[in-house]
Design brief:
mainly alpha, Rna Polymerase Sigma Factor, Chain: A, Arc Repressor Mutant, subunit A, 2 domains
């Protein structure tokens, strides 16, 4: 613990990545109470609160370790917001609904986009994983399309015999990507989070 018994968000982030026990204890002391209040006043108990809080910390840790998250709010706000999202999902599974907002929801509203940012990151991670499953040929073609290369330029770069062949390959590669996405069970889990695949997948896949 430092002299002031507190940490900046940068110090907290570095402490999480380094698995610093003092920082983790500090997070628990300063961020758990709002999460506990949210859950125990909305059909949950102490054990639920501990589990959800721990899960939120794991999500934050994994995102920070993979450099897959840019925080635009305080660490405490992010933890609370993810915990709220996780608890809402759990209540749906239990056939219950959250009983309205309480005072602690103002705490999470420091940045109203926290959950949207998290969900967007989750979707992008999913798309990247599926994209990496494509053939090297398809990945290269789609990357060139993403970078706004023309059909003529792609034909030359790929060494294809004609622009029509390039168009056909582009179409088949896009189709392969879409099929892999829609056949993956994770797609349906993400879809239940209420998003439009045509909007969220980078626009190049819909171009003909």
């Amino acid at each position: 613990m430092n002299k002031n018994n507190s940490y900046t968000d940068k110090e907290i982030i570095n402490g999480i990545i380094d698995e610093n026990d003092d920082v983790l204890l500090y997070i628990y002391k300063n961020s758990y109470r709002p999460v506990r209040h949210l859950i125990t006043t909305n059909s949950g108990n102490e054990e639920d609160a501990r589990d959800i809080f721990q899960e939120a910390l794991v999500i934050l840790y994994k995102k920070l370790k993979s450099d897959d998250l840019k925080l635009y709010c305080s660490v405490s706000t992010f933890i609370y917001s993810i915990a709220r999202l996780l608890w809402l999902k759990e209540l749906k599974l239990r056939g219950k609904e959250i009983s309205g907002y309480n005072d602690y929801d103002n705490y999470a509203d420091e940045d109203s986009n926290v959950i949207k940012i998290y969900e967007y990151n989750e979707r992008l991670s999913f798309y990247r994983r599926i994209f990496e499953q494509l053939s090297e040929d398809c990945k290269k073609i789609l990357q060139l399309v993403m970078r706004s290369y023309t059909i003529s330029e792609i034909t030359k770069i790929m060494g294809y015999s004609s622009e029509q062949h390039t168009k056909n390959r582009r179409y088949r590669c896009k189709k392969a990507l879409i099929n892999r996405i829609m056949q993956n069970p994770e797609y349906y889990e993400l879809k239940n989070e209420v998003y439009n695949i045509d909007r969220e997948i980078p626009g190049w896949y819909t171009k003909r």
